[in-house]
Amino acid sequence: MALKKIIITTTIGSPTKEIRVFDAMSDWHLIVTGDRKTPTYKLKRGEFISWKQQVKDYPELCELVGADNTVRGRMIALLEAHKRKADLVASIDDDCMPYRGWPGPIYVGKKVRAQFIRCNDLAFDPVRLSYNIPSRGFPPQLSWGKLEFTKFQMREIKPLVQVNFWDGQADVDAVYRLHGKFDNGLCNSFAPYWTNTFSPVDTQNTIIHGSVLKDYCGEIPFVGHVSDIWAGYLFQAFHPNSTLYCPATVRHWQDRTYESVVKDLEGEIYSYRYGLEFLQSLKQKGRNFENIMCLPNEAVAAINLYRSYFK
């Protein structure tokens, strides 16, 4: 029996050329969630879920998280994929152009042998390994020293989340973006690998197993510009040793003004202050995220509300 595969994304604009390519994929079903600012949005095969429809179907979540942000939209898109009983969910950004044959080999839900990286630190940064620049949402305190790790030849993993990388712009720390260090060309990773500790998960080209959507909310609101990264860390507290990083399968580029990069930097301040504490608390408390002091009460409420839709 064929797997039910769903692509999800959010938008505030009209369909991009990248979205047209995803919409044409016959073996995937596309779901796009809009916002109040989204103009008339038409797809040939996929579904568009308007702000009005979201308010009707998810009134509490819309009221709590609010309009005019992609955080709510990503959470609702994942809930819509769950409602349709998706076996696999691919979370993408609408400015990522898929390469021919996207998404490449899918390892999610299968036992595979992949390169294992043992890191003795609290977290490991795959973006720093693959692009030589620290990732957005990775605690700067852990980026100051040399990247210390040990590579083992191969070890078995059954991934529940598969992060496929991107060529073009890497998802790097805003301080580096501010100095123009975000156009890194090609990803340096050519084979799948995984690690034994926390590591950033991005939503722009990532595949999630349908069975764990309750534990993967996509984004955590009220923590700034690292909402998706913190959601990935939270998922790893529920499911350690289940995230696999794979070579690039999209080309990502976004024209950024100086002001937009400054806004990104402002949005990452909360993580600069509390990102390390968040990971330390997750390591100590595991799934008991309600007791993490640096996680805002509104964020805890949003996570619990998201989880309440899974019966």
Give short descriptive properties of this protein:
three-stranded mixed sheet; 12 strands; single chain; 31% helix; alpha/beta; 311 residues; 22% strand; nine-stranded mixed sheet; Spore Coat Polysaccharide Biosynthesis Protein SpsA, Chain A
3D architecture notes:
- This protein is of the alpha/beta class and 311 residues long.
- The chain has one domain (5-307): Alpha-Beta Complex (Spore Coat Polysaccharide Biosynthesis Protein SpsA, Chain A), CATH 3.90.550.
- It contains ten helices and twelve strands.
- The protein has helices spanning 17-23, 51-57, 59-65, 70-83, 126-131, 174-178, 227-238, 258-267, 269-285, 297-307; strands spanning 5-10, 29-33, 47-49, 88-92, 96-98, 112-118, 150-157, 161-169, 183-185, 193-195, 205-209, 243-252.
- Strands 1, 2, 3, 4, 5, 8, 9, 11 and 12 form a nine-stranded mixed β-sheet that branches.
- Strand 1 (5-10), helix 1 (17-23) and strand 2 (29-33) form a beta-alpha-beta unit.
- Helix 2 packs across helix 3, helix 3 (59-65) packs antiparallel against helix 10 (297-307) and helix 7 (227-238) packs parallel to helix 9 (269-285).
- The mean pLDDT is 92.
Walk me through the topology.
Elements: E1 5-10, H1 17-23, E2 29-33, E3 47-49, H2 51-57, H3 59-65, H4 70-83, E4 88-92, E5 96-98, E6 112-118, H5 126-131, E7 150-157, E8 161-169, H6 174-178, E9 183-185, E10 193-195, E11 205-209, H7 227-238, E12 243-252, H8 258-267, H9 269-285, H10 297-307
Parallel strand pairs: 1-2, 1-4, 2-3, 6-10, 8-12
Antiparallel strand pairs: 4-11, 5-12, 6-7, 8-9, 8-11
Helix pairs in contact: 2-3, 3-10, 7-9
